[in-house]
Amino acid sequence: QENGHEKIDYVFKVVVIGDSAVGKTQILSRFTKNEFCFDSKSTIGVEFQTRTVTLNGKCGRLDRYRAVTSAYYRGALGAMLVYDITKRQSFDHVARWVEELRAHADSSIVIMLIGNKADLVDLRAVPTEDAVEFAEDQGLFFSETSALNGDNVDTAFFRVLEEIYGVVS
Ligand code: GDP
């Protein structure tokens, strides 16, 4: 957005949450650096990565945090709630993560449910329809992604950003 000659930057905070080992770190890495790291260890602690994006022809910076405590939900406008399509348990826990968001995050937070590891087709344990149904029930956006090959990762983030942008502007 132009304000005189100055460009206005928007900073959107989006948290990436979900069970351990579902691929949060790799999704962040894919989105911010277009990289996938084959021998990464699951990280404990806060991750902070940034990618500058252009939305509707407008520049904005997206700051993404990895939530480990409720303090990190503060100010978050979006949440990527990740499960692993090959681990039923990680999907069964999604309801708890939604509760956590409803308890700690802003009520207008945009939530994207993400079924990650979609490349592992033969190991699928969560049918797409189950997730679609849950997402519709809870009013969440939904996408299946692969941090490994990059499928839908950008699309999912941009969908959330567009929605946030619609909310804040
Ligand atoms: P986190 O604990 O949620 O941050 O999970 P990580 O990002 O550390 O990923 C956990 C494991 O899953 C790692 O061995 C990753 O290489 C692997 N992984 C993450 N995303 C994908 C994916 O999209 N496809 C496949 N096949 N493996 C993935």
Automatic annotation (TrEMBL):
Top-level division of the source organism's lineage: Eukaryota
Transmembrane stretches, start-end: none
GO MF annotations, alphabetized: GTP binding; GTPase activity
Family: Belongs to the small GTPase superfamily. Rab family.
The name this protein goes by in its record: Small GTP-binding domain containing protein
Originating organism: Trema orientale (Charcoal tree)
Higher taxonomy: Eukaryota, Viridiplantae, Streptophyta, Embryophyta, Tracheophyta
Section of the entire sequence shown: 17 to 185 of 229
